[in-house]
Design a protein that fits this description.
alpha/beta; D-Maltodextrin-Binding Protein, domain 2; 5-stranded mixed β-sheet; globular
């Protein structure tokens, strides 16, 4: 009897020991947060956040992307936990067009959209047929066109709003040509067009300062700041997970807000939730 009991205990201990490493590995894996991000400013902000997360026992791994499609695809497939590169209108548009199930887990910052000089240095220098480059994705093209309208370059049809395209241009007194390009390509044609209207992160990545280089940009207290806040996006159902809550909490911390304000000269502005 004693011999049989000893065998049972030995077997139990052996089985328990076999599962300990796997359990520990699982626990260790759960303390890793993987995020897809645009290089500037998102990955830079995440690099700063990684230091704070490490103090809380988390490991943050960031994979950089130069486009607006793959970061959503890898989160939809749950290859990565989250992404940080986009604003809510783009997220909603992507879900509608691609049938994905991505949700906003927290607004982090806002990047003013700007008009940057190319071959011309002021909007009053525009001549008949001049070319202006804008992003071609649905939400960012509308944003660019609205900024051009606000600065007297074009007039859009009433109600065009956040879905505006070149087809919604009602008045174009200088007959400017709107050159629609993938967002990452816009900074690369600055020397070939009269003006370029750029997303904040691509302008930063190309070495432009919103405060110093742009001719005009969206006001920090405008409705655009609320509409185009850059968010942490996750697959639906994961927004309340421990790791995502930890990530968002650190990104909204006073330390990260100070880093953003000290680093980007007004080109990136921390987003504050309305009371």
């Amino acid at each position: 009897m004693k011999k049989n009991l000893s065998k049972v205990l030995a077997l139990t201990l052996a089985v328990s020991a076999a599962f300990v490493p796997a359990a520990l590995a699982g626990a260790e894996e759960d303390k890793t947060i993987t995020v897809a991000a645009s290089p500037t400013p998102h990955a830079e902000i995440l690099a700063e956040a990684a230091k704070l997360l490490e103090e809380e026992g988390w490991t943050l791994e960031v994979k950089e992307f130069d486009d607006y499609i793959l970061p959503n695809e890898v989160v939809e497939s749950e290859e990565l936990d989250a992404n940080y590169f986009q604003h809510i209108p783009y997220l909603d548009s992507f879900n509608e067009e691609k049938g994905t199930h991505l949700v906003n887990a927290g607004g982090i910052h806002y990047e003013p959209f700007g008009i940057y000089p190319g071959t011309k240095s002021a909007l009053d220098e525009l001549e008949d047929g001049d070319v202006i480059a804008v992003p071609n994705d649905t939400t960012n093209e509308a944003r660019a066109l609205l900024l051009l309208q606000d600065n007297g370059v074009i007039t859009l049809k009433e109600g065009a709003g956040l879905t505006a395209t070149v087809m919604d241009i009602e008045d174009n007194p200088k007959n400017v040509e709107i050159l629609e390009l993938e967002a990452a390509q816009v900074p690369r044609v600055v020397d070939e067009v009269a003006f370029a209207v750029m997303n904040g992160n691509y302008a930063l990545n190309a070495g432009f300062s919103v405060a110093k280089d742009s001719i005009a940009f969206e006001a920090s207290d405008s409705e655009a700041a609320k509409t185009y806040v850059n968010v942490i996006a996750v697959k639906q159902g994961n927004e309340e997970s421990e790791k995502i809550l930890a990530l968002v909490d650190v990104l909204k911390s006073d330390e990260i807000q100070k880093f953003i304000n000290d680093t980007y000269d007004g080109a990136v502005i921390p987003f504050e939730e309305a009371e």
